[in-house]
């Protein structure tokens, strides 16, 4: 009897949220593998600072990190708005998430272009794991932007409500996870 | 209970400000030359930021524990991967 009561709160919730967390658990393994390849490449090649880190622009990436953290804040505000039945607030905050996501991608494109100009390409020792890792993360951001646009369009057709906003909540989980991955990458690739 | 949760969830701006300040501190610390100080400080700050996002923005602090277990399970599943890659990668690099 007690067992049934203990599991009830989860079973009552929509399975898609549970599915999203399972997906994010898998993503953790995926990103840890990619991060590990980068760190081990760095470990076995001691001239990391001369060959690669000297080409990275910390202020530009710090600004990009600020942009993504800010987008996470707007995302949580979007969810908060719809949980209070504020459809307009949801729309405005989602729009901010889209704009900030695109700004982040523009910042990454700027960084990559600068690196290519300085001769850091995919075929270099550090270029391969770096572009793979940041590229996969950037792809996640891009998918997130497309997802947010889809939510915005679907909200226009069939508005999300105080009772029905699980689609927004699931997207929020994905977007915050992408933010967490960047928080880790910012430290491990750029700062240390 | 629901009122308490709503109230506790409302401090998103405070969390955001902490995240921004920590990012700023991280960026400044990265210019410190002493690796013995730099490494633990940066890793700790990064971990604090990640946990803040998980607990407050992703609501793990307020949601069912099952979600926390699923996320932690991903981290635990990665341990054998980390061990294998840490052993194999340096061997591959030698050849």
Q: What is the annotated CATH architecture of chain A?
A: Up-down Bundle
The N- and C-terminal alpha carbons of chain A lie at a distance of 52 Å
Instruction: Tell me roughly what share of residues is in helical segments of chain A.
Output: over 70%
Instruction: Give the overall form of chain A.
Output: elongated
Report the C-alpha radius of gyration of chain A, rounded.
19 Å
Helix and strand element order of chain B: HHHH
Q: Pick out the low-confidence regions of chain A.
A: 1-11
Distance between the termini of chain B: 61 Å
Radius of gyration of chain B: 18 Å
Main structural class of chain A: mainly alpha
Major β-sheet annotation of chain A: none
Structure description:
The complex is a heterodimer of chains A (192) and B (95). By secondary structure, chain A is an all-alpha fold. Chain A contains seven helices and no strands. In chain A, helix 2 runs antiparallel to helix 6 (127-157). Chain A starts with a helix and ends with a helix. With 95 residues, chain B is mainly alpha-helical. Chain B folds into two domains: 1-63; 64-95. Helix content of chain B is 83%, strand content 0%. Chain B contains four helices and no strands. Chain B has helices at 2-9, 12-29, 35-57, 65-94. The longest helix of chain B has 30 residues, at 65-94. The radius of gyration of chain B is 18 Å and the shape is flat. Chains A and B meet through helix 2, helix 4 and helix 7 of A and helix 2, helix 3 and helix 4 of B.
Task: Summarize the structure in short.
With 192 residues, chain A is an all-alpha fold. Chain A contains seven helices and no strands.
Strands, helices and their partners?
The complex is a heterodimer of chains A (about 190) and B (about 100).
Chain A: H1 2-11, H2 15-44, H3 48-51, H4 58-83, H5 87-117, H6 127-157, H7 166-191
Helix pairs in contact in A: 2-6, 2-7, 4-5, 4-7, 5-6, 6-7
Chain B: H1 2-9, H2 12-29, H3 35-57, H4 65-94
Helix pairs in contact in B: 2-3
């Amino acid at each position: 009897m007690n067992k049934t009561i203990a599991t009830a709160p989860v079973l009552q919730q929509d399975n898609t949220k549970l599915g999203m967390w399972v997906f994010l658990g898998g993503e953790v393994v995926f990103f840890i593998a990619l991060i590990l390849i980068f760190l081990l490449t760095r470990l076995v090649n001691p001239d990391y600072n001369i060959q690669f880190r000297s080409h990275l622009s910390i202020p530009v990436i710090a600004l990009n990190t600020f942009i993504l953290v800010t987008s996470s804040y707007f995302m949580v505000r979007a969810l908060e708005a719809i949980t209070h039945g504020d459809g307009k607030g949801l729309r405005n905050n989602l729009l901010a998430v889209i704009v900030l996501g695109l700004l982040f991608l523009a910042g990454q494109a700027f960084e990559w272009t600068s690196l290519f100009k300085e001769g850091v390409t995919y075929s270099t020792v550090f270029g391969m794991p770096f572009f793979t890792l940041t590229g996969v993360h950037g792809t996640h951001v891009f998918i997130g932007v497309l997802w947010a646009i889809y939510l915005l369009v679907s909200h226009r057709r069939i508005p999300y409500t105080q009772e029905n906003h699980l689609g927004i909540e699931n997207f929020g989980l994905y977007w915050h996870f992408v933010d967490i991955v960047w928080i880790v990458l910012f430290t491990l690739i750029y700062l240390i | 209970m629901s009122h308490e949760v709503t109230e506790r969830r409302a401090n998103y701006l405070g969390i955001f400000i902490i995240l921004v300040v920590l990012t700023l501190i991280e960026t400044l610390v990265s210019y410190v030359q002493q690796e013995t100080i730099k490494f633990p400080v940066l890793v700790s700050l990064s971990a604090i930021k990640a946990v803040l996002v998980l607990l407050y923005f992703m609501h793990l602090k307020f949601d069912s524990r099952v979600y926390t277990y699923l996320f932690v399970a991903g981290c635990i599943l990665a341990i054998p991967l980390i061990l294998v890659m840490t052993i194999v990668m340096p061997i591959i690099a030698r050849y």
